[in-house]
Every structure is written in C-alpha cells, then in structure tokens.
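Protein fold
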Amino acid sequence: MLRTALSKLVLPVLAISLVISSCDIIGSDDDDSSIQPPDNYEFTRDGESTVAYPGQNDRLDMVEEMKAYIATAHEGEVISEQALNDMFENTNGDGGGNFSFTSDRDLKSKTFAPDLDNNLFTDIFADAEAASENGSNGIRAQDGVAGLLEREESGNDILVDEKGREFTQLVEKGLMGAVFYNQIFNVYLTDDRIGPDVENSETEEGANYTSKEHHFDEAYGYFNAPVDFESDWPESRNDELRFWSDYSNGSDEQLGFNDKVMEAFILGRTAIVNDNQEVLDEQVDILYEELELISAATAVHYINSTISQLNNGNTGEAFHALSEAWAFVNALKYSPNRKITNDQVNQILNTDFGENGNFWQVTPEGLNNAKATLVETYPDLESVQDQL
C-alpha cells in the first residue's frame, strides 16, 4: 500500500534518474546516482544505516518515566516537586536518581522558550506535589481544591489540580507539545537545520550521516514511528507506537494520517539523499500540515469523549478526557505555520473549557463551541467530527 502511494508521488515529482538498489550514494538533481524512496524509513551508506536519533528516544523515555512517577500519587503517594524538576533537567544524568537509565540529554533545554519563561512546567510540578499531599491526607478534589478524583468507569483515582486538570496529562501531553512538536516544528524542519546551506556532501566526523540527513532523522525521532509504519496498522503491534505516532494511528481510520506522514518523511529523507531541496520543501510543508491536523483531530476526539461522559454524569472520566483535550489544543500553538490563532487557542482553553480554564465550570455549550472552532479552522475534520 505504502509502496504504491510512494511510486505515484515520487516518479513525476523528482524528475531524475532513479537507481532502485543504491541507498549508498548521495545523489543530486543532475546525476544518475539518485535513489528511489524505500518502502520503509531505512537509509544506508556503504551497507550501514545512516539513520540515528538516540537523543529523541531518550527524551521519550524520560517523559514516560515522569508520567509513571506522577501516577504513583493516584495511589496516595506524595510526589516531589524537586524530583520532577530533576527529571525535567536530568540532574546528574539520571534524573536525580529517578530515571531507570542514564543519558546526557534532557527535556528542559529542548522546551519551547516562552513556556520556560512563563514557568509552565515548574509551576505544574509544584502544584502536583501540593495536590499529592492533599491526596495522601484523604482530601478529595472539588471546585477550587486539588486532590484525588475517581474515574467512575475504572474506579481508579487520578490526581487533579484545583481546576480539575489531571497532572499526568498536563505533563505527558504538555511535553509532547512543548518539547516534541516544538523541536520538530521550530528546530529540525527549519532552514537552519535542513535548508540549502546545510552540509550534505560530507558525513559528520565519526558518523555515517551528513548533518542534513541527521537533522531530518531527529525530526522523525520525535514522531517516533516504527520504520514500516503505515495505515491499517495491526492492533497486535500497537505497543510499538509512542506518543505522536500512537495518536496518528488513533485517527488513521478516519483521516489516513499514518500513510500521509510516513510518505512525507520517507520522501523528504530521500530528497535529502538526492540533494533535491524543492522536493524536500514540499514534504516539509506536508509534515507541518498533517502533524498539526493530528493534534486538532485528537483534541476533537477528546472533546467528544468529554461531552459523552458529562452526559452520563461521570465527572472523573470527563475531566480525564478534557485534560487530554486541553493539552492537544495547547499543542497547536507550537507550529509557526499554524492555521489556528493564539486568540482562538486561548478562547478554547480559558473560556470554552470553563471560565478561567476551570473544568468544574465547563458546559456542553462551551465544549461544542470549542469543537466548532476546531472544525471550522481545520475543514478536513468536518465530515468525521462525530466519528473521532
């Protein structure tokens, strides 16, 4: 399926001589050493892979372990603001002893600068510790009071702030936007990293990739899909999906995200090997559009879920879903090419989701207004808005 789609896309666009068997040579528009796009996100030189993104893998692992740490508060444990900051900064290379692994990478230095300036995450960490202290003392969450809140369907507790927002979602999904999307959109897919002046003829010292190849791979690393990811992904392999690739798959049946995003990544990386900036730029435009749309579609999905749970009288389930919706709407702000305005994002987060962002004050009218704004801004969602 993916091979057919790629063949249709690349042959008329590249307009160069293609050699099926050679992923080993960096080609250009005017020679015959160019390569065809491979079926999977796999590229080699001299028989060895040129793809590497260990830093991205480490940061995804960090977010997973931060979420797991916060979730211990759901059982009444007190969590530490200092521990969360140590994990955010990766103190001593092991998150201050809180990570199960060591790394010389960190999350904080890769976080969207305005969020750092506004202390978005450090404030969340401080609030999480205070809320967990309430929870450990048996204080139940209510309007204006942070603590534990039961999810009615599972019977499990979640830790929420005084506005009803779930801390695991604020941190996990928040970092998916502020780090992963921020790095894709504002760093690795920019001209500074993959533009025409970036080194693409010589490999980096001690590595088997050029700087331009590596930068694009790092963007792919934040999407973090299996190299053979595609639409109609088998459920038996869902445990291979992480963060954004998982949410791409979540709306794939309705919008075909998996093939669209993978085709753009594969074609873009092939264009770098072929030294074809025009095709690369075309694929980058597609990635900006489709990755933003994944976030919008996922937000609509969770708004739908929130409406359904509120109709059933399930406050805990509704606030869990709305916390996810909050984070995915917030993630829309990280794309410099976003279709939605900051005013629209703020309207959804701080009015439609409850006055001053207070979930305890949310209404069906506000939720439907938020949904309408997203659907109007992203017309691709119109025909599937109720199926997401």
